Protein 1
Amino acid sequence: MMVIHYICRYCGKHLGKLEGTSFQSEQLGFHKLTEEERSDMIEHDQNGNLYVKTICEDCYESFQKNAKYYLNDYIIQ
């Protein structure tokens, strides 16, 4: 079974997961990403699980209030 974990790239919060035997990139929207975006956002582990870096609502709101936070690789909340 494959698991796709969605994690905030800034604070590390686990946002959710999908479990299944197979997924199509079109179902997940990965086909709309460039190769550079895919390599930046998607990681694989040794068991075949995927980790997708995204942004949580808290970090998004922080960025809306303080645009300078975009310059950081992470945010400690």
Protein 2
Amino acid sequence: MKSINLGIQIVPKSNQLDTYSLVDKAIEVIKAAGVKYEVNPFETVMEGPEDELMAIAKKAQEAVLEAGADEVLVYYRMQIRKNGDVTMDEKTAKHKQA
């Protein structure tokens, strides 16, 4: 299966709970899934097969709701290549600090 990049930004809304701790619940799901990922200040980017990443994304948003968010706004960005893999490294490796 070819790999894609999927960026997901989950913005929880809660009158009672800290939103950063709710976002952490989504990141825990992604981390436990075993796919390559990078957490950035505004989103988390995953790399892998599209179907698998979409299933992880759904579990991540459900985890935020189960943790007590009143609602979530979810933004996806995907890069899919017709004839080959998309990797995070091809876009960012030259910019990483040692």
Protein 3
Amino acid sequence: MWTKFKRLFVIKTRFEAYLIIYGLALGAMTRGAHYTQEYPGVGGYLLFAATAGAVFLGGAKILDAIRYETEAREAAEADASTTNE
């Protein structure tokens, strides 16, 4: 039962990754908008840019990790199939 529960928190496909990145971006842009109100001027806009940059970096890392896991899984399956022959 816990295996099924833990599986809910694993990003398996690029579509799921894009949904998570969208959620992160929505929250970050809302926070960035608050920064521009709390800190008017250049400081607020720099913080706004920092929140956007964090989403770009995090999103890229998520997508790279999915690609790496997919390639590793395919390599393991190919290695297992050649071992069984």
Protein 4
Amino acid sequence: MATITFYGAIEGVTGSAYLLATDKVKILLDCGLFQGRREEEEGNLEAFPFSVAELDAVVLSHAHLDHSGRLPKLVADGYKSSIYMTRPTTELLDILLKDAVSLQLRDVEWENKRLRRGGKKLIEPMYDLEDVEKTLSLCAGIDYGQRKTIAAGVDICFRDAGHILGSSIVEVFVNEQGVEKKLVFSGDLGNSCSALLRDPEVVEHADVLLLESTYGDRNHRPMQETLEEFEDIVEQASINGGNILIPSFAVGRTQEIIFRLGELYQKGKLRQQAVYLDSPMAIAVTEIYHRYQDVYNREDKAALKQGSANSLHSFLPVLRYSSSTAESMALNNIEAGAIIIAGSGMCNGGRIRHHFKHNIWRRNAHVIFVGFQAMGTPGRALVDGAKFFNHAGEKIAVKAAMHTIGGFSAHASQSQLLDWINHFSQPRPRLFLVHGEEKTKLIFQEFLKQQSWDASIPAKGETISF
């Protein structure tokens, strides 16, 4: 009898990790970083709660670090077998893991300087660049819809999740003594109103379903209202004459914003002289998006053909890349008429902070938040009305107009999650809610009960048989 043990994204939305075991093999689904509060992130340094040496394969739903970020630690601890994912995910993972290890090594160096001065024991990084390179060498890309045997009695098949490029719903087929059972892991399901990517692919059969519940407690604002507000802000900024600053996440959100600005440009409603993408990582990710247009949805792919080269760049001809530090610094001389997209998405690092220094004190400047701002981050402080922005010890007065647009989420909403699971045929699968805050999962569980779904909320470390 097969079992699944819940190790991560159980008490919150990060650290995704689930262990599938039969009497012959053990398969790990996802291996993500715990992110958020310090006590949560300390869990990344702990030993894995299973034997790494006994793993036969790892399956990755998508590239986001809360699903992939501990893979190099797994390799550093001795894992040597294949890591299966979609082909676009292999390319995104190369970028994200190398950036993550760079930031980690920098943070460890700074922390050790402090510890050394205090005569305290130094800390070691969770993994290094060599571990990342070894991890990438183990990655095997599989096309959507291709069923593949990955271990004795275990096949997998990836279905399009529509969350970010390459994101997948993972179908796992377990054959024991001639009887096949099917586990489906939703991964992160995409918002069906998002740009570029297709809606989550319908799956109709499963014995067990692990369902993400990030927004299981609410529905998103209608996309049409979101786009109208976005257009109004861009128009107001052009009248005021100031720059627009958009803190944005490199994977997914940035590409959506570029596409939405392209729509305004194609309609003659974008008066700004230039749109600058000032993030080396986001630039690299955008180029990967160009190469995988075969997974775009039909409508947005057709819209892109209005550009001469059938790409995001040609759809928005005023888009400029600022790759180097010098190019980024040159933007500080632009006082009006520009839109600057830069990371990090929550303003706790990256080039956006330098652009705040040169613009946020201007009354005609605008800041548009297009992603979630977690408690304790500079972005959240600004959204909540902070009067000053702290940058490198300098307090800068906040005079720019702040705008929060909440409809660009890359996750499915409550009604979208329900619509997706309602495609499963009778008998319905055993349903387990994962990847959600405790309060959210409880609300979603009650909502599903009213819709005749019996959903369980597993505890961390709990094992169920199927």
